[in-house]
């Protein structure tokens, strides 16, 4: 039997295989390209007289351990004596839209964190982000962490320390939950990147009042704003929440681009991972989870509740309007939660949620 064609095919396959890049090789190549691009950006930023700056975000924790958040960036130096210079010295510069993305992350920078008499040294990640736990004995209430990277001025981060006997907390999504953007979902990321200003967003009707009432009813409850938005938008989001009189709370955002094992960060994984972390950090806490039915909040909260039914006080889902659903690319159907151990409520606004939470004795 003539087997030449088969041998020829096998030979061809073996010949081509070494020339084909495997998935891991492509991924490593992408990392090298990404690092190379960031190196060029750093060189250009230094040539344009950008200066290193540490930015601090609000953190939270228990009486024995706190979570400290911040970033190390190269940013444009503000004019001497200007309001921008004063704001920059306090890590609260007023960067909007595309300007918030002109800063360059300083990768793997050493950062000193001081809380009281405890000094810790950590290293920022490839996006310049600092997200670390510091073991320190603190009393319940507000404390200050001082962050300083090499070549930067020290900045202060507010840290909310939760008492051991606090049993109720609030986790809320941001986009389409506490704020509304009338834009198609595919353009939302571009909007956040290049246009976003807190004045361009509308507060969801009744949501600020709802969260305010919840914090009055539960004055010691921590408030966590868990979103898939980028850290670059953190100053803008914080100003939006303050301007619209939302309760103060830690922002848990994410970064875009490559990770150690993924091409793009998963928003769902980001939320599930942080919910699991909160459950571990506060094992006796029961959380009110607030989201909307325009993305994956229902699925995320449902999965967390199934695995941790004793950690969830209730799940409140904001129902999008018809027009909002169109912009969001549709919405999920209100699920059948009759078998759930956790109560679910649905409403298009904060007032409707408040009525239902009252019947559940949450409010």
Please state the CA-atom Rg, rounded to the nearest Å. 23 Å
For the sheet with most strands, the description reads: 8 strands, mixed
Q: What is the mean predicted local confidence, pLDDT?
A: 80
Helix content: 25-40%
Number of strands: 16
Number of helices: 10
- Which residues form runs of ≥5 with pLDDT under 50? 1-22, 90-98
Question: Based on CA inertia axes, which overall geometry fits?
Answer: globular
- Secondary-structure content class: alpha/beta
End-to-end distance? 83 Å
In terms of DSSP E residues, the strand content is: 25-35%
User: How do the helices and strands follow one another from N- to C-terminus?
Assistant: HHEEHEEEEEEEEHEHEHEHEHEHEH
Question: What does this molecule look like?
Answer:
The chain is of the alpha/beta class and 363 residues long. It is 33% helix and 27% strand. The strands form 3 sheets. Strands 1, 2, 3, 4, 5, 6, 7 and 8 form an 8-stranded mixed beta sheet that branches. It has a 6-stranded parallel beta sheet with strand order 13-12-9-14-15-16, with helices on both faces. Strands 10-11 form a two-stranded antiparallel sheet. Helix 9 links the parallel strand 15 and strand 16. Helix 7 packs parallel to helix 8 (297-307). The longest helix is centred in the N-terminal third of the chain and has 25 residues, at 23-47. The chain starts with a helix and ends with a helix. The model is unreliable at 1-22 and 90-98 (pLDDT under 50).
